[in-house]
Amino acid sequence: MMLPREYRTVTSLQGPLLVVESVADVKYDELVEIELANGERRRGRVLEIDSNRALVQVFEGTDGIDVSSTVVRFLGRVLTLPVSADMLGRIFNGRGQPLDGGAPIIPEKSIDVNGLPMNPYSRDYPSEFIQTGISTIDGMNPMVRGQKLPIFSASGLPHNRMAAQLARQANVLGAKGNFAVVFAAMGITFEESSFFMEDFRKTGALERTVMFVNLADDPAIERITTPRLALTAAEYLAFEKNMHVLVILTDLTNYCEALREISAARKEVPGRRGYPGYLYTDLANLYERAGKLRGSTGSITQVPILTMPEGDKTHPIPDLTGYITEGQIILSQTLHRRGIYPPVDVMPSLSRLKDKGIGKGKTREDHADLMNQLFAAYARGKEAKELAVILGEGALSEEDKAFAQFAGRFEDEYVRQGEYENRTVEETLKLGWELLTIVPEKELKRVRDAWIEKYLRPLKESNGKNPAKAE
Q1: Among candidates 2, 23, 24, 20, which has minimal Cα distance to 10?
Q2: Element (H, E) at 71
Q3: pTM
Q4: Is the per-residue pLDDT at 134 higher than 70?
Q5: Burial of 436 (C-beta count, 10 Å sphere; 0-12/13-18/19+)
Q6: Nearest 10 degrees: CA dihedral of 121, 176, 359, 443?
Q7: Which of 49, 130, 332, 449 has its Cβ near the most Cβ atoms within 10 Å?
């Protein structure tokens, strides 16, 4: 390790950045210590090097720094995270320091937080079902171990409650005791932070969770570091402790705003809507740290949560995220206004790996057919309801009326569930078949006759219905 080198050659400040002249042997991303005239010390990192000039990003901001009396020390090392299995159950800030009043971690090792995306050659194909306990995900858009499945939300929607529910309930079937959650919150309010901490403590979820919290009034540069700290902890737990790790990142929009703020301070040429041109690359570097490695039993599954500005799916953040990840879960303002939780809009939502994690030996043999039939019936039911608004209910056929009834009950019984209601995949599948008893059996064209005979007809008989009449 190189010895620290001191300089008193700070020439300018702008936002969270300061420029140091006449430096030598300085490396990109090197850690920096800034000592003010009053003895206060701040941390930073090298963002750019131009011959003998270094641009330093100050984690705590540059307020109160006097250019003439400030000492800058280049420490000769990059930002690392001390890691240990004792991190589980602990809460850290956006710099990796304990925030829960507990003792510092006694590390097994320290790991560079910048990490690297997983080598595609070393990846193992995701194929194991993760049960979240939420029917709209487990039944309609299943999550697979090693997948990146973001949640697209909007201001005012309960994505924080949904994130907490995922952290409490998610599990790989048959892998109990070997599942961990790494939860990173960026730019959240103090009230939101308190909600997460209290909820995790109250429900016992904290015992298997590592939390990193960056508040809205914390420096923007910490927002850039927080997800990297979380993913470094996840990589340690997954690939050195052989755990199945679910990483929840909320809110990626705040992260991207911080990226834009720092890019503007650096006077970089802006890209779409003022975001830096490397936004795609930066997000990909985060998202592609998820996956399964060949020869390792551990894995990292990512659920990035982002609020779409003005609910716009074409905004650069959700747009680029959709390109990189394997699907998206979209939350609906309309369902939320009707008091439905979680307000998941199943029609535009998509899990591109859903077929890989379901079926016999994973969930159940009828899962794929049932999922396709529920999609088709819900789509037809919504069309029938729209037609009834225009032409009146009298214009609907008996089949259309049945599908319209199905759509209403699907939203009220299948989509809607309690915040602390943890449905097994079997309960979700049974509920789907119960709803299909509403529509005529002859209209069920996406499920095999064998599944109708095995799962649907017994339900009709137990409900006192005659299958023959339904036809």
Answers
A1: 20
A2: strand 71-78
A3: 0.91
A4: yes
A5: buried
A6: -130
A7: 130
Cβ atoms of 306 and 328 closer than 8 Å: no
Q: How many CB atoms lie within 10 A of CB 412?
A: 11
Structure tokens at 254: 């705040």
Rounded-to-integer distance, Cα 325 and Cα 351, Å: 9
DSSP state of 3: P
**In sequence order, what DSSP letters do the residues of 364-395 get, joined into one string?**
-TTHHHHHHHHHHHHHHHHHHHHHHHHH-GGG
What amino acid occupies position 69?
Answer: S
Residues sharing a CB contact under 8 Å with residue 198, sequence separation 6 or more, in sequence order: none
Give the model's confidence band at 464: pLDDT under 50 very low, under 70 low, under 90 confident, else very high: low
Question: 76-86, pLDDT tens digit by residue?
Answer: 888 899 999 99
> All domains of the chain, ordered by start, with CATH?
4-76 (2.40.30.20), 79-355 (3.40.50.12240), 364-462 (no CATH)
Residue 396 CA neighbour count, 13 Å, CB half: 21
Residues 6+ apart with CB under 8 A from 252: 150, 186, 227, 283, 304, 305, 306, 317, 321
Provide the 8-state DSSP code for 164: H
pLDDT digits (tens, 9 = 90+) for 336-356: 999 999 999 999 999 999 999
